[in-house]
Amino acid sequence: MSQVYEELKARGLIAQCTNEEKVRDLLDNHQTTFYIGFDATADSLHVGHFLQLVVMSRLQKAGHRPIALIGGGTTMIGDPTGKTDMRKMLTKEEIDHNAECFRKQMRRLVDFDNGTALMLNNADWILKFNYMDFLREVGVHFSVNRMLTAECFKSRLEKGLSFIEFNYMLLQSYDFLYLYRNHGCHLELGGDDQWSNIINGADLIRRVDGKDDAYGLTFTLLTTSEGKKMGKTEKGAVWLDPEKTSPYDFFQYWRNINDADVIRVMKMLTFMTLEEIAEYEKLEGAGLNKAKEKLAYEITSMVHGKEEADKALAAAKAVFSGGAASGDMPTTALTADDLTDGSIAVLDILVKTGLVKSKGEARRVIQQGGLTVNDAKVTDVYASFDESAFGGEGMIIKKGKKTFHKVTL
Fold this sequence. Notes:
Helix 4 links the parallel strand 3 and strand 4. Helix 10 crosses helix 11. The mean pLDDT is 86. The longest helix is centred in the C-terminal third of the chain and has 17 residues. By secondary structure, this protein is α/β, with parallel strands linked by helices. The strands form four sheets. The chain has a six-stranded mixed β-sheet, sandwiched between helices. The protein has a five-stranded mixed β-sheet with strand order 9-15-14-11-12, covered by helices on one side. It has a two-stranded antiparallel ribbon with strand order 7-8. 37% of the residues are buried. Helices cover 43% and strands 15% of the residues. The protein has 18 helices and 15 strands.
């Protein structure tokens, strides 16, 4: 086996580990079954999940067996971790639909054929629980006093923590016990915000089965150099579903990250060798744009395929070089109903494209000199455009320095 653990460490992926010596041995010298859980809270995975899928794929390529655990059962409760309020309660039908969407997206990065990886759903065992049996087998091993010291609960105590959420840690811990018993799973992985849940799962195995060979490992969370969570834009989350975040917008998100983040993200999220990344690390100033373009291309290829990455790259180059608008640029199609007396106000255009959330925000963008329409800067907040402005390939809007959008009629 290769030096997998050292590779993860060198890429800045490892945050905490329950027993570094044992986990290093499992990953470097044995074929190990490990799992990562994904609660089906939306109908698409997002950038935060992507990091976990990359690690899962990396370990699979090294000979280990991943279990992608869809949280069909745990999603019915909702993980309180990192949330200031209780999550919206989803119906079983909504959860099942979301889980199916997850399955399709995961297959792009993880090979589930021939048993080299498993995709399981904890609804298959959690929804069959007899509550009294669960309390006697699992609940008896959890100290409420100790649970309340966990970060995921501490941050919620002031605003209120519901009893249903309080059960989440027990259920996630039981998942580890179930997978340990039924699939020989000895390692749980997850983001560093899952540390409390993960160590309690390993502890439950020790208490219930008397075994001391279950371990936990958490990844560094995907944050900017300022410590803010990555994967958020003005329009919301950066999704892996092309219908929710277009391949072009996805590409542009990575193309436009801060200079301080590009090399670190390249190490964490791509399969480029550390030697190749070291060459990009030598770039400075404007030269970093080459690294950002490479990063955006690599990640877009992994999520959407090479063809979509090629299109996004070509569209980005055309826009930045002042070339013709590409058909792959994010586009909003207006209809005659959107026009009043043959024209439409610039404020309405900005809101309809989703480039701003309100007319007030649109006014601020214009007043601050941040809007260009068809290569002409817009300074009048009351400006409007008639049908002729949408001729040819459509109206090209540039908001700020990096956001481009096409509007057709």
